[in-house]
Amino acid sequence: MIIWDKLIRIFHWLLVLCFCLNYFWLEPGDSFHQAVGYTAATLIIIRIIWGFTGPPNARFHNFLPSVAGIKEHVSELRHRKVNQAQGHNPLGGLMVFSLLALFLLQAITGFLREEINALYGDSFLTSVHSISANIIFTLVIIHIVAVVVTAYIGKIELIRPMITGRRRTKHHDRAK
């Protein structure tokens, strides 16, 4: 079954590339770092638009986190029967919204400190930009661990669909 459309998959992996380039390899503030940052910001804007106009699994309203949704997801994990047709679970939705907000913060602080003469090199903006990048890195590590753990415990393919768009269903969902 199709889980992730092509735009979501391209967005995901390009954002991964942008983050890795700017966090690990490119010199903060140099022209390549800025270009990659603007690329990431463009990707975030496209993803936000797609969150309102894209297919069901891409739409934000389909994975808004709630206490009830999180409890249901934890129950599914406890029973090792996660819904195979869903895209993001409620905790994954919380991660998506957190990362989108942090990447927007990165774009805004990066733009302000580099492009607005009165704020060029502002130490507060630089600190916010640096701290939010470190928070993104921490959330990425949590995301990777959560994907592996959820895939194992919930008996659900999570990595393959982010590459191919398709998920092979498990036996417990075919019986439903």
From TrEMBL:
<dbReference type="InterPro" id="IPR016174">
    <property type="entry name" value="Di-haem_cyt_TM"/>
</dbReference>
<feature type="transmembrane region" description="Helical">
    <location>
        <begin position="7"/>
        <end position="26"/>
    </location>
</feature>
<dbReference type="InterPro" id="IPR011577">
    <property type="entry name" value="Cyt_b561_bac/Ni-Hgenase"/>
</dbReference>
<feature type="domain" description="Cytochrome b561 bacterial/Ni-hydrogenase">
    <location>
        <begin position="4"/>
        <end position="165"/>
    </location>
</feature>
<dbReference type="GO" id="GO:0009055">
    <property type="term" value="F:electron transfer activity"/>
</dbReference>
<dbReference type="GO" id="GO:0005886">
    <property type="term" value="C:plasma membrane"/>
</dbReference>
<dbReference type="GO" id="GO:0020037">
    <property type="term" value="F:heme binding"/>
</dbReference>
<feature type="transmembrane region" description="Helical">
    <location>
        <begin position="91"/>
        <end position="111"/>
    </location>
</feature>
<keyword id="KW-1133">Transmembrane helix</keyword>
<keyword id="KW-0472">Membrane</keyword>
<keyword id="KW-0812">Transmembrane</keyword>
<feature type="transmembrane region" description="Helical">
    <location>
        <begin position="131"/>
        <end position="153"/>
    </location>
</feature>
<dbReference type="Pfam" id="PF01292">
    <property type="entry name" value="Ni_hydr_CYTB"/>
</dbReference>
<dbReference type="GO" id="GO:0022904">
    <property type="term" value="P:respiratory electron transport chain"/>
</dbReference>
<dbReference type="InterPro" id="IPR051542">
    <property type="entry name" value="Hydrogenase_cytochrome"/>
</dbReference>
<protein>
    <submittedName>
        <fullName>Cytochrome b/b6 domain-containing protein</fullName>
    </submittedName>
</protein>
<keyword id="KW-1003">Cell membrane</keyword>
<feature type="transmembrane region" description="Helical">
    <location>
        <begin position="32"/>
        <end position="50"/>
    </location>
</feature>
